[in-house]
Design a protein that fits this description.
By secondary structure, the chain is an alpha+beta fold. Helices cover about 45% and strands about 15% of the residues. Strands 1-3-2 form a 3-stranded antiparallel β-sheet.
């Protein structure tokens, strides 16, 4: 008997459950919030806490751990560079679950999962200094016609 192990089943089998949680995790990291059922949100919260805790320390083992779940180097880079530095002084509780409503079809509790603390923006939004397009090329093209 496996004591203190929660077993959560959503669909038809083990593989389907793993892929469901993986897709929820990927969508949450991409969009920073997600609306789903309360049971899925609770399970997703545990996974996000593990992922962010691993993302705080950049090394090969943690990078491979994140790649195993996310399967997208772009998302792993986002965790290491944008999300985890925002939670550097926080030990846990990275996300919050808010109950939104009941689903009309079956009465399931709908919840929104979102970041508990605002993500700090890095200085990536610097104004890009570009030269205005030169009119010399346009004049030369007109002169040739």
């Amino acid at each position: 008997m496996r004591h203190r192990v929660e077993k959560v089943k959503f669909r038809l089998g083990k593989d389907s459950n793993k892929m469901l949680i993986r897709k929820l995790l990927i969508n949450f990291i991409e969009r920073n919030q997600l609306t789903t059922t309360l049971e899925k949100a609770k399970l997703l919260k545990r996974m996000v806490d593990r992922i962010i805790s691993r993302g705080k320390i950049f090394n090969e083992a943690n990078k491979n751990y994140l790649l195993r779940y996310l399967m997208d180097p772009r998302l792993v880079k986002k965790i290491f560079e944008e999300i985890s530095p925002s939670f550097s002084g926080i030990v846990g509780g990275y996300v919050r679950i808010r109950r939104v409503d009941f689903r009309a079809g079956d009465g399931a509790v709908i919840a929104r999962i979102e970041w508990a603390h605002p993500l700090t923006k890095r200085s990536e939004n610097k104004p890009v200094t570009r030269k205005p397009p030169s009119t010399e090329l346009k004049l030369k093209k007109k002169d040739k016609q």
